[in-house]
Design goal:
single chain; about 180 residues; mainly alpha; Arc Repressor Mutant, subunit A; Tetracycline Repressor, domain 2; 2 domains; about 75% helix
């Protein structure tokens, strides 16, 4: 077994995605992921609670970035502007990870339990966005609506961005979908 190297977490994530794509999520064991990464199962469990969490490891950081950007928006920013600030922060984090996310997407789509976990992630982001808006003094009904719509816009924009042939700019896609939504309203 290889000695400890500082990139263990990343190596485990890469190995897991490779194996899930090759063999399927259900057919892949933690032992196989650890072996592919040149690490032990014990090391795997130091980084991840289970084999699902390898695919959702950045969720907490993204949720925090979303909420922090909303909180940091100018005091006179409208609710829409504050929401867009949060979505821009998430888009900035996701942009350099496009290839990784494109590999991850079909794995999540093909596995019902991962699809359910993806929905839980989005729900936690909605809750964080709503809480950040409430902290800004937005009334409860508006904060609820804005968080539902904001995460839906992000999700639609991210799906289109991942499916596109060119790399594109996720933040620009988010803003374009947000503008389209305004036209509908």
């Amino acid at each position: 077994m290889a000695r400890w190297r500082p990139d263990s977490r990343r190596r485990l994530q890469d190995a897991a995605v490779d194996l899930y794509a090759e063999r399927g999520f259900a057919e892949t064991t933690v032992a196989q992921v650890a072996e592919r990464a040149g690490l032990t199962e014990r090391t795997f469990f130091r980084h991840f609670a289970d084999k699902r969490e390898v695919l959702f490891a950045n969720e907490d950081a993204l949720r925090a970035a979303l909420a922090d950007a909303v909180a940091a928006a100018d005091a006179d920013a409208t609710t829409s502007e504050a929401v867009l600030a949060g979505l821009d922060a998430v888009a900035a984090d996701l942009q350099p990870r496009r290839d990784e996310l494109r590999r991850r997407t079909p794995i999540v789509a093909a596995t019902p339990e991962l699809g359910e976990r993806e929905l839980q992630k989005l729900a936690s982001w909605r809750a964080a966005l709503q809480s950040a808006l409430l902290d800004r003094g937005v009334d409860a009904a508006t904060a609820h609506l804005a968080s539902e719509v904001g995460i839906a816009v992000l999700n639609v924009a991210a799906q289109a961005w991942l499916a596109a042939d060119d790399e594109g700019d996720l933040a620009a896609g988010v803003r374009a979908r947000f503008a389209a939504l305004r036209e509908l309203a």
